[in-house]
Amino acid sequence: MAVSKASDTSHLCSDLYRSRPATDELVKILYYQPIYSILTGHALAVFITVVFLWNTVPLQWLLPWAVIIVTQTLVWAYLVAKFRKEQHQQDKIREAIRLFPIAGAVTGIFWGATLYSPNVIHDTTSMVFLSIMVLGITAAGLAVFAPYLRSYSAFAGCTLIPFAVRFFIEDTRLHLTLGIMFLLYLTIVLISGLNMKRAVTESIRLRLTNTDLVADLMIKNSLAERAREEAVQADISKSKFLAAASHDLRQPLHALGLFVDALESRIHYSEVRHIVNNIRISTDALSDLLNSLLDISKLDAGVLEPRLTDFPLRPILNRIATDYSEVASSKSLQLRIVDCKLMIHTDPGMLERILRNLVSNAIRYTHNGRVLLGCRRHQDPVNGDRICIEVHDTGIGISDENIGNIFEEFYQIENPERDRSKGLGLGLAIVKRLADLLNCPLTVRSSPEKGSVFRLSVPFVSNTVLLSEPALDYLEDLKDTRVLIIDDEALIRIGMCQVLEQWGCSVLQAESIEQALELLGEQCEIDMILTDYRLRDNQTGLDAINSIHAACNRNIAALILTGDTDPQRLREAKDSGFKLLHKPVSSAKLRSLMSYLLEQETKS
Most buried residue, 173, 258, 329, 543, by most Cβ within 10 Å? Predict the structure, then answer.
């Protein structure tokens, strides 16, 4: 069955949700999310807000707000639990689907009302805190409400519109700017919600179609080949859904990270800086979780291919030592990385990902003592000369009954409450799959309360280490660099512009290729192009770069930023020869790569 065109999607959505089977599937998606973890996070956000506003907002306003919104959260948790336990859920479907828009609107109203509390709008610190909190909560709400767009529209509208109205009432330049930014952000998240709803609708439609086909196959064996084709189509649809969901979630997360970067340099009060640092930690954690989920999806889809090469192990060990020493010290742990001068043969990127996950996992589950990373030669009777890279820790250890489960997805020994700060339970699952992909056997031995040893066997090359050129310093000042930003999302352009201007760059921003060419004119006085990959009218960042190069009659350093994870699109971007960064991008990584590209352009 052919996939419907985009122009017919809205009609299909309305028709599909009128059918009882489709409504049943939608209710399952909504009510069988990890709703308790979501509601717990919501309650935690309320608690943090109360603590932060304790000395700003009168308690006769603050405490009733907190009690009401927590009560609403508990009522919602009760209704979800009640529905899950219903023996005759089919009789409650219509009632269940109506509850979601109500829950979204009520939740949004209470958060939207926070800016109207006494003293908040005139207290810059409280206003900034609530603005960032509400932007983050609205982005997180995509995962909860977006499958049913009416719910998310009610939630996002009731949350963001009151903020915009309150800013407009103040009628100052700063507040008018904030009001416009909130309305732009509302537009972006609603578009993302619409895209996610379309993907979910298409997924439900294909699922129902496949169900009908399976029923027919029980009667007519001659339809077996058609059922196989439908199953393949459903798998393709799932991949498209994951790619679309990834892109739409990465966009607001990338914008939020840019605004945090821009805000950080403007904060002069230590207590506010602490809040911003915590927001950055949360944003980075969300980015890590999203990347882990995408890694699993790529491994499932078989789009990751190892690039085997000979290389020295020492640089990887040095980078791990640099990145994790401070983490270990913060837990009063001793992290020891034993130097290794040997050459090995495997994929360096995948190997580094494996070792980073193992070291990170060892630090997370070790509460006192040490973590050791080292290697030694080993003669394998089957695979020949190998290098055994081992990670030792004195952590909690693993019992015999659990040791077979640690490489399963979402399995965590010491996290029954699903605390997000302890990770998502995907690290060792990714490690195992990457090790199998590289044909590098991974083994583990452990004793409870004594510690664990993870051993990875990698092909050995020689004792000789090739001396590499010294690493270049890519943190050079970007002052007076002329940068052109091309992105069709206004919030991302605003955030990147603020960050680049803090670095001393001169910035032009455009939402399309045509606007970019118009801004450049005949002078073409720019040093670098930063472009999103997916632009309007089916155009890409590659089209933008090539058009500007042709108009300026010269090559200009260019960098592509993308939230897309579709393998075909990634392959096209990679084959172009231009550098590619995946959103959300940290400011440090962006600055480092920009400096490197400009230096290479100067040398050429």
Answer: 258
Distance CA 445, CA 584 (A): 37
Cα distances (angstroms) measured from residue 121 to each of 125, 167, 177, 260, 371 = 9, 8, 14, 20, 49
Length reported for the chain: 604
What are residue 528's phi and psi, to 5 degrees?
A: -155, 150
pLDDT tens, 414-447? 544 434 444 444 567 778 888 888 888 888 888 8
Residue among 28, 151, 35 nearest 92 (CA): 28
Distance (Å, whole) CA 143 – CA 141: 5
Instruction: Map tokens 């009522």 to a residue.
Output: 75
- Walk me through the domains of the chain, giving residue ranges and CATH numbers: 309-462 (3.30.565.10), 482-603 (3.40.50.2300)
pLDDT tens for each residue of 230-261: 665 665 555 555 555 555 666 666 666 666 66
Give me 61's structure tokens. Answer: 């306003």
Q: Could you tell me if 247 and 563 are in contact, meaning their C-beta atoms sit under 8 angstroms apart?
A: yes
Give the global pTM. 0.40
User: Considering all CA atoms of the chain, what is the largest pairwise distance in Å, rounded to the nearest integer?
Assistant: 78
Count CB atoms within 10 A of the CB of residue 340: 19
Q: What HEC string does 474-514 produce?
A: CCCCCCCCEEEEECCCHHHHHHHHHHHHHCCCEEEEECCHH
